[in-house]
From TrEMBL:
This is Integral membrane protein. The keyword Transmembrane helix applies. Gene3D superfamilies: 1.10.1760.20. It comes from Megasphaera elsdenii CAG:570. The chain crosses the membrane at residues 24-47, 68-86, 98-122, 134-160, 172-201. Pfam families: ECF_trnsprt. Keywords: Membrane, Transmembrane, Transmembrane helix. It comes from the Bacteria. One of its GO terms (molecular function) is transmembrane transporter activity.
């Protein structure tokens, strides 16, 4: 028998996710799965794939909390990992060939962290709502790019430099170049897409505390 409170009723048990959070997580995960399976979420470039798959993750964090963002981010990471096995970019092709576990870490962990980062940035910003959402979207996207490329550099950067016959510093410069060329436009696009969607969902009642 469970303990009763002073009123004689059973205390409400806390669940990992509420029904609303489960619904949002399921819907955004479905969008992520669709984008991942069809390839619409990846934009192939010369040495890596730009992506919009992080957008549902950020939306999940800003409308249903960090747990939902982490779940959707995990789905993003899984499909990024699957993509790296099926049609890898030049960078991830090396990661797969070098160590598939390292490739899984590079693809999945930074994407899970997107959910946490978006939630924390939004929670600590105390400005007008539209700018709060836009800045969160932009900064989170930049952080995602840095985490993804930083993970690659930290885990397989040295063997990648040796395989290419270049100094390790050149690998760092390549990552900085990708961050500028890919990360900044991705961040701007994210802000433009995420802001009106999250504003509308907040007006509809889907808003984190």
């Amino acid at each position: 028998m469970g303990k009763q409170n002073a009123a004689g009723t059973m205390p409400a048990q806390r669940t990992f996710l509420s029904i609303r959070q489960l619904t949002v997580a399921g819907f955004l995960s479905a969008i992520t799965i669709f984008l991942g399976l069809t390839g619409y979420g990846f934009i192939p470039l010369v040495i890596m794939n730009a992506t919009i798959l992080h957008i549902p993750t950020i939306i999940g964090s800003l409308t249903a909390g960090r747990k939902v963002g982490m779940i959707v981010g995990f789905m993003f990471g899984i499909f990024s990992f699957i993509r790296s096995l099926q049609a890898p970019s030049a960078l991830l092709l090396f990661a797969v060939q070098y160590n598939v576990v390292a490739d899984a870490f590079i693809c999945i962990i930074p994407r899970i962290l997107i959910g946490v980062i978006a939630f924390e940035i939004y929670r600590h910003l105390k400005i007008r709502e539209v700018w709060r959402i836009a800045i969160t979207a932009v900064l989170t996207t930049v952080c995602h790019t840095i985490l993804f490329l930083g993970s690659f550099t930290a885990i397989v950067g040295v063997p990648y430099a040796e395989a290419q016959g270049i100094p390790f510093m050149n690998v760092i410069n390549i990552m900085l170049g990708i961050t500028a060329v890919n990360g900044i436009p991705e961040a701007i696009v994210s802000g433009l897409i995420i802001t009106p969607i999250v504003m509308a969902l907040h007006r509809a009642g889907l808003k984190v505390a």
